[in-house]
Structure to design on (249 residues):
């Protein structure tokens, strides 16, 4: 069995960021994908999310190949050409489940670095790139971005992270550490930010940032501005709206 991501179709936003290699290991992680008689996240609801699109092919030992298309939001189902619905775990969905398997496959290529630096909040949530660091994995050349060949933001699975919250008007954030599972969700979400910004009046809602790190010390950061209609800022100056991959409660 193998799995290969292809650039997704042009949806309301753009194709998601995906690996450009084939998945041939950690296929057991895909056991959470099931064929369902009815949609879990309906097409109309997923259209409201405005998520990025993905398309993947799954090859089986008998030579057959199945294609799955969908939106990256974890509550959205995938669809096959015969009309079947494919669902994944509610915290990852189809896209997130496959991305986790790829992240583990890439992690197998690297040794674990000795990292002594503690996870810390960004000095300024509006400049997330200043919290970034490049480990050995930063040189891994795989990926499609918005349908074009370009290295991924963070191809290896995240192993730890920190979430920081600035209440409205506060200069100092509160922080909580993220375990591997939640850090990995943030890492996946970094590749699925829908795109676009909203021009709206500022509210008194909080601002959140999450910094995540892989086994080689590569760190990437995302900021969610709930005070500005849920605008999301990524390390590379990528902007988007909403971020369902981090529990900010």
């Amino acid at each position: 069995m193998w799995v290969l991501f292809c650039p997704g179709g042009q949806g309301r936003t753009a194709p998601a960021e995906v690996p450009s290699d084939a998945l041939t290991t950690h296929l057991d992680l895909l056991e959470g994908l099931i064929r369902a008689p009815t949609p879990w996240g309906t097409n109309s609801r997923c259209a409201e999310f405005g998520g990025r699109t993905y398309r993947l092919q799954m090859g089986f030992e008998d030579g057959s190949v199945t294609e799955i298309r969908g939106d990256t939001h974890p509550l959205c189902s995938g669809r096959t050409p015969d009309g079947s619905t494919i669902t994944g775990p509610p915290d990852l969905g189809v896209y997130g489940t496959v991305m986790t398997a790829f992240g583990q496959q890439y992690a197998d290529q690297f040794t674990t670095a000795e990292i002594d630096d503690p996870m810390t909040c960004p000095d300024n949530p509006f400049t997330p790139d200043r919290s970034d660091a490049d480990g050995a994995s930063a040189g891994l050349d795989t990926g499609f971005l918005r349908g074009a060949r370009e290295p991924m933001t963070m191809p290896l699975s995240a192993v730890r992270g920190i979430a920081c919250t600035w209440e409205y008007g506060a200069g100092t954030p509160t922080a909580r550490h993220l375990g591997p599972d939640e850090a990995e969700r943030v890492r996946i979400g970094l590749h699925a930010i829908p795109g676009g910004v909203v021009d709206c009046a500022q509210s008194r809602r909080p601002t959140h940032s999450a910094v995540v790190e892989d086994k080689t010390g590569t760190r990437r950061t995302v900021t969610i501005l709930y005070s500005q209609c849920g605008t999301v800022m990524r390390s590379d100056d990528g902007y988007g709206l909403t971020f369902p991959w981090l529990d900010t409660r």
Q: What stands out?
A: The longest strand covers residues 158-166.
